[in-house]
Write the structure tokens for this entry.
Amino acid sequence: MSPSEYRDFKKLDKRGDNLRDHMTDLELIFTMLGEASTTEIARNKDARGYGRNLEAAVEGGSVAGSARRDLEKKSGRRVSNRENFKEIPEAVKRKQLKKEDE
């Protein structure tokens, strides 16, 4: 999804809310994986200009997308969800994190 599509998916205000503030840990991890993969690919291919960097971005996104799909398949749960992490009460967040650690 594009950032604007993800914002709509999370039902966030178009301007006032930072999308990352509303992501779960896994959503953030896969976002960062895509960004880091894109950076690494662009550097290694010495990407210059819009077209070459766009190719690197697509390839980096593919790395993160494959990893996300693999985790979802093995865990049986979707990574992306409509849950708005910022609005979850702190006690519930702690319980969720504790369950994930078990």
Summary: The mean pLDDT is 87. The helical segments are 3-9, 25-44, 49-75, 90-101. The CA atoms of residues 37 and 57 lie 8 Å apart.
